[in-house]
Design goal:
Oligomer: single chain
Helix content: 25-40%
Largest sheet: 7 strands, mixed
Distance between the termini: 63 Å
Bound molecules: S-adenosyl-L-homocysteine
Number of strands: 9
CATH topology of the largest domain: Rossmann fold
Radius of gyration: 20 Å
Shape: elongated
Strand content: 15-25%
CATH superfamily of the largest domain: Vaccinia Virus protein VP39
Number of helices: 10
Strand order of the largest sheet: 4-3-2-5-6-9-7
Length: 260
């Protein structure tokens, strides 16, 4: 097969470091019978070793040239190729207990993570290669510079852990940024449940839109002084001090009123 020229617009940085590939596969530990889905398999750096123990495997890939290569490389009864955009893909169509993995295109990582969060009930776990800075924001705690909308909205759905860092030299072509592997496990919904996730998303974006301002200012449109008293939240605080659980309490407090 002729050499594939990496396409920048598809965020193509192919893994070429065998130690890193082995470390990723051992972190995922695929077991026979797992319902594994890879986003953006590319030239198969992860696909081939991940497939070794599996009876069947799903991939979602957008680049037509790469799809044609995958069709030539892997038997159709072992690998199902879903040709299309992962951002629009209905992951629920692949069933439950999904184990989703990928060295994701960094240019679409935030919208893709938000898209995947919608399928949390169908997901067993996820392992992704992402820009290190994005993993730091995903896993950030309150009262830190990195804590923001991405932290709250993803921590609402998932327990997340940064497993290890990956240098640019592990890829061809090398990206300009450092990368990291993150593990995401859906959280039991009983722990805290937003009545309406859209309301939660709205409160969180509004509060963080001006992260230097107090909640009294940023949330003036949804919370009156009495509401702050009822919630026992000091209106002088700023969004970056508010825990995920408190954002859920705020959203659930205003939700019944919005329904009227
Ligand atoms: N997993 C491979 C390739 C990573 S590069 C490796 O580690 O070497 C990112 C891959 O995602 C490429 O194959 C690219 O074509 C694919 N991709 C980019 N945008 C996509 C999208 N919106 N949906 C699905 N795949 C996409």
């Amino acid at each position: 097969m002729s050499k594939h020229i990496p396409r920048k617009r598809f965020g193509q940085h192919f893994l070429c470091d065998h130690d890193i590939i082995a470390a990723i596969v051992s972190a995922i530990r695929p077991q026979a019978g797992d319902n594994l889905v890879e986003i953006g398999p590319g030239l198969g750096a992860l696909t081939t070793p991940l497939m070794a123990n599996l009876t069947h495997f799903h991939v979602v890939e957008l680049d037509r040239d790469i799809i044609a290569r995958l069709q030539r490389t892997y038997p159709a009864d072992k690998l199902t190729i879903h040709a299309g955009d992962a951002l629009a893909f209905d992951f629920a169509s692949l069933g439950t207990r999904l184990r989703i993995v990928g060295n994701l295109p960094y240019n679409i990582s935030t919208p893709l993570l938000f898209h995947l969060a919608e399928f949390a009930p169908n997901i067993l776990d996820m392992h992704f290669m992402l820009q290190k800075e994005v993993v730091e924001r995903m896993t950030a705690h309150p009262n830190t510079h990195d804590y923001g909308r991405l932290s709250v909205m993803l921590q609402y759905r998932f327990d997340m852990e940064s497993l290890f860092d990956v240098p640019p030299t592990a890829f061809d072509p090398p990206p300009k940024v450092d990368s990291a592997i993150v593990r995401m496990l859906p959280r039991p919904p009983e722990d805290m449940q937003a009545i309406n996730v859209d309301t939660l998303a709205h409160v969180v974006s509004t509060a963080f839109a001006q992260r230097r301002k107090t909640l009294r200012n940023t949330l003036a449109g949804v919370l009156k002084p009495d509401d702050f008293v009822h919630l026992d939240i000091d209106p002088q605080r700023r969004a970056e001090t508010v825990s995920v659980a408190d954002f859920v309490r705020i959203a659930n407090h205003i939700q019944p009123k919005e329904n009227k």
